[in-house]
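Request: Show me your protein:
***
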Amino acid sequence: MKTASSTTSSTDMMPFSGEVIAHTKLWLERAVIGLNLCPFAKAVFIKDQIRYVVSSAQTPEELLVDLMAELELLQQADPEAIDTTLLIHPDALRDFLDYNDFLDVADAAVEELELDGEIQVASFHPEYQFAGTDIDDISNYTNRAPYPTLHLLREISVERAVDAFPEAAQIFDKNMRTLQQLGLDGWRKLLGEGDQQKQS
């Protein structure tokens, strides 16, 4: 499948990569698209224009190498084939504060490759926490993914999506209301986390 790939050639990593991608797709389907947290996600998901990359990086330095490679690949790729990339890194930057610090490195990489204004990096993490919120505040779940993930987006696609959605500025407030109505137990049930805990 052209959109599912890994930056590692290790055969031991491949089954794990498939599991990570499947888990990420489930989150996209049920939460991001199912709850309409991002009105722009459904189209690229249905058209199979998302590139899923599972990085074997263990350190920020290794992850940076993978990030720069994926930034260049996205910039050169046909948008009809790859509109956006999810760089998933299960073993690197598990601590959210470390991950948050790395976002400055990611932005610097975009500038170094002279892709600022062309590609931007969005952030998702299983422990994502907005400033001033409690760790279990439901609002944090708008940016919580199953694994630490860097989302590489084409600026032109973002602009086109915003133009097509006149109430884009209200998305955050709408998402807060959606998650508050759902609640933490509802979120866990949505993603089948309770069932996974019973099986473990």
User: Anything to note?
Assistant: The chain has a mean pLDDT of 89.
